C-alpha cells in the first residue's frame, strides 16, 4: 500500500520538485498550496501533466490551524516547506514572517501530535547559523540569525525540537544551505544574474560581491529530504544539506558568464545590499552527519547544476521580470 504524505509549500521552488520526486518514488502525495483567487497552484501548474494529475491538491493557508489539520488527516508523513523566504521583504514586514513561519509551523506540530503523524520533516535554513565562526558549519554551530527571516526560521526550528523532546513527536530537521535550480524565485542571486544576461542587459546589477555561499542543486536537496524521511535513525536530528564548498558572489557571476559565453560589467545595486550587521558573510556546510545518517552526498557540482539551471531559464525566462540596465 502506498504511503500518503503531505507536502506543504508544494507550489514553491523546492516543494514542487519534492512533490514530483515523491510521486516518482511511488508515494501518494497531497500537495498543500496557498489558496488564491486565481486558483494558481504555483509551479505545480507547470510540471508534467501525468505527475500533476497524480497529486491531490489541497488549497489552504498554513496560518489556519483548522485547514492545516484537515490537510494532514490520513497522512503518514508531512514535509513542511511552506514559508515566507525572501530576506529583503522580512525587513519590511516581519510580522507576516512570524505568522507564517512560526505560527504555521506550530499549526503543523500541534496537528501532528493530535493525529499521531509518523514523521514530520521540517525545513530549516543555513541562514539560522549567521556568519560562520569556523571553516565548516556542523549542526552544533551556534544559532545566530541576522535577519527577521532567519530569526523566524530559528524559532520554528526550536519549536520542532521542543515538540520532539517534550512529546516524543518524530521529527527530522533538514537544514539546506543555498539552494538553486529550475523554478527558483527571481529574487535569488542565480536567477537574478542569468535573467539579466538573457534579457540583454549590458550591466549585471547585484548586491554584495563578497559573501561566500555553499550552493546546492535542488535535486540534491530533494534527495536529502527523502533520505531524512526514509531513515529511522534521522528522527530527532538536525541534518545539514550542502556541498562543503563555497564560492563568492563575484566568482559565481564569473562562472555563470563563462557558461553563457558572455562578458558583462558587474555593478553593485545599493538596494540589493543587506543592512550592516545583517549580511551573512560565509556559509559552508559540514555534511558529515548527512553522509552518516542518511547516506547522502551531493551528486551535482556547481557547473553541472548551473548548466541545468541556465538551460531551463533559457526556455522559461519569459516567466521572469529582470531589471534591464542599458546605460
By helix and strand content, what is the structural category?
alpha/beta
**Rg over CA atoms:** 19 Å
The dominant shape is: globular
How are the strands of the biggest sheet laid out side by side? 3-2-1-4-5-6-11
CATH architecture term of the domain at 4-179 and 217-241: 3-Layer(aba) Sandwich
Q: Write out the CATH superfamily name of the domain at 4-179 and 217-241.
A: NAD(P)-binding Rossmann-like Domain
Name the assembly state.
single chain
Strand content: 15-25%
Q: Which blocks of ≥5 consecutive residues have pLDDT under 50? A: none
**Can you count the helices?**
11
CATH class identity of the domain at 4-179 and 217-241:
Alpha Beta
Terminus-to-terminus distance:
61 Å
Descriptive report:
The protein has 327 residues and is α/β, with parallel strands linked by helices. It has a domain at 4-179 and 217-241: NAD(P)-binding Rossmann-like Domain (Rossmann fold). It is 40% helix and 17% strand. It has 11 helices and 13 strands. The protein has helices at residues 13-24, 49-54, 65-72, 87-92, 94-115, 148-167, 189-198, 218-230, 249-259, 288-294, 302-316; strands at residues 4-8, 28-34, 56-60, 77-80, 119-123, 171-176, 178-180, 203-206, 212-213, 215-217, 238-241, 247-248, 265-268. The strands form 4 sheets. It has a 7-stranded parallel β-sheet with strand order 3-2-1-4-5-6-11, sandwiched between helices. A two-stranded parallel sheet has the order 7-10. A two-stranded parallel ribbon has the order 8-13. Strand 5, helix 6 (148-167) and strand 6 (171-176) form a beta-alpha-beta unit. Helix 5 (94-115) packs parallel to helix 6. The chain is globular and about 55 Å long. The termini are far apart. The model has no long low-confidence stretch (mean pLDDT 94).
Amino acid at each position: 500500500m502506498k504511503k500518503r504524505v503531505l507536502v506543504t509549500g508544494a507550489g514553491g521552488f523546492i516543494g514542487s520538485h519534492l512533490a514530483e520526486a515523491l510521486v516518482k518514488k511511488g508515494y501518494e502525495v497531497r500537495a498543500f498550496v496557498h489558496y488564491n483567487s486565481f486558483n494558481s497552484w504555483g509551479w505545480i501548474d507547470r510540471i508534467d501533466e501525468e505527475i500533476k494529475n497524480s497529486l491531490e491538491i489541497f488549497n489552504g493557508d498554513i496560518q489556519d490551524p483548522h485547514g492545516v489539520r484537515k490537510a494532514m488527516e490520513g497522512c503518514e508523513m508531512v514535509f513542511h516547506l511552506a514559508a515566507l523566504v525572501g530576506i529583503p521583504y522580512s525587513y519590511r514586514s516581519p510580522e507576516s514572517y512570524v505568522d507564517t513561519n512560526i505560527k504555521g509551523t506550530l499549526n503543523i506540530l500541534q496537528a501532528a501530535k493530535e493525529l499521531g503523524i509518523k514523521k514530520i520533516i521540517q525545513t530549516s535554513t543555513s541562514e539560522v547559523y549567521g556568519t560562520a565562526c569556523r571553516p565548516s558549519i556542523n549542526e552544533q554551530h551556534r544559532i545566530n540569525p541576522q535577519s527577521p527571516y532567519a530569526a523566524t526560521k530559528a524559532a520554528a526550528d526550536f519549536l520542532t525540537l521542543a515538540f520532539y523532546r517534550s512529546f516524543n513527536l518524530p521529527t527530522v530537521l533538514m537544514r539546506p544551505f543555498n539552494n538553486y535550480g529550475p523554478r527558483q524565485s527571481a529574487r535569488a542571486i542565480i536567477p537574478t544574474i542569468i535573467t539579466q544576461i538573457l534579457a540583454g542587459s549590458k550591466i549585471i546589477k547585484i548586491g554584495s560581491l563578497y559573501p561566500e555561499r555553499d550552493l546546492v542543486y535542488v535535486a540534491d536537496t530533494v534527495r536529502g529530504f527523502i533520505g531524512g524521511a526514509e531513515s529511522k535513525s534521522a528522527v530527532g536530528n538536525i541534518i545539514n544539506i550542502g556541498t562543503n564548498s563555497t564560492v563568492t558572489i563575484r566568482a559565481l557571476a564569473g562562472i555563470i558568464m563563462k557558461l553563457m559565453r558572455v562578458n558583462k560589467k558587474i555593478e553593485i545595486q545599493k538596494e540589493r545590499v543587506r543592512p550592516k550587521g545583517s549580511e551573512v558573510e560565509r556559509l559552508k556546510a559540514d555534511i558529515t552527519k548527512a553522509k552518516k545518517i542518511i547516506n547522502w552526498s551531493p551528486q551535482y557540482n556547481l557547473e553541472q547544476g548551473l548548466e541545468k539551471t541556465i538551460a531551463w531559464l533559457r526556455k522559461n525566462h519569459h516567466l521572469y521580470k529582470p531589471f534591464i540596465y542599458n546605460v
